Amino acid sequence: MSTAGVTALPDGGLKNPGAGLITLDPVHTALLHGLDELLTGLAERLAAPEVMGPPLLSVTGLARLDYFRNFPHLGVSAGRFAPDAFDGLAAGESPGELPLRPTGHLLPSATCYGLLLSLEGRDVGEDGLRLSATGRCFRNETHYDGLRRLWGFHMREVLYLGTKDGAVDHLERGSAFVLETADRLGLDLTRATADDPFYDRGGSRAKLMALDPVKHEFSAPDGTAIASVNRHRNFFGERLDIRAGSYGPAYSACVAFGVERWVHAMILTHGTAEQALDRLRAARA
Q1: What angle do CA 116, 120, 126 make, to 5 degrees?
Q2: Domain 15-54+109-284: which CATH class?
Q3: Are 130 and 48 in contact (CB under 8 A)?
Q4: Whole-model pTM above 0.85?
């Protein structure tokens, strides 16, 4: 990979169409795509074929997975204009003042949800199943901050379903890959147990998290979490009737990468997008 032929916009910056929304210039775009390609190395190492998840998720399906109990603040709903708004739209009325009709779907907030929902009722066998995908994800946030916290962003995930031991192995190999890749890129990451704010700290789920953490994050020096390893136990296997042969309900686990956040970490470490792109080129040589 080279910066040759990759030219920054005249002002050298990123265009910001609105809060949490950013248009990447050619250099940042090349950096994002190059990093995503590098992160596919985990999928190649684990023989996880590339798939593409759905662009919308059923509200009914997400409710069965306790999504709204755990993440009531994150959902971005997909709506369509009601038929009684068509005449107003055609007459030039402001779209923001015309009625929307719910579709019963949300934009994805994580790549794995669409993959898991698509596997409902399936038997993945005791050898298990691995899949890899990059999805465009969307989250309502209390605030937005450049590439660190966006309304819409790219998330690459490598998902495993199978046995409990297989899930543990998946996360151990995923963690090793994160640290190895960070070292190749000159990134200094710290690993810590995730402190998810949606948990009621006095409730049973909070106590379970404290006793048996299911999520660890890898963060850049400024505290930006750029990758995580997530152990789902057999929760999705039970809720979606995904089985692992005679083993019973499948255990699942995923390794997730926030690609724009990797771009942020590279620029934070190496100074400019051009310098970060050159370091990425050297790491892939």
Answers
A1: 85
A2: alpha beta
A3: yes
A4: yes
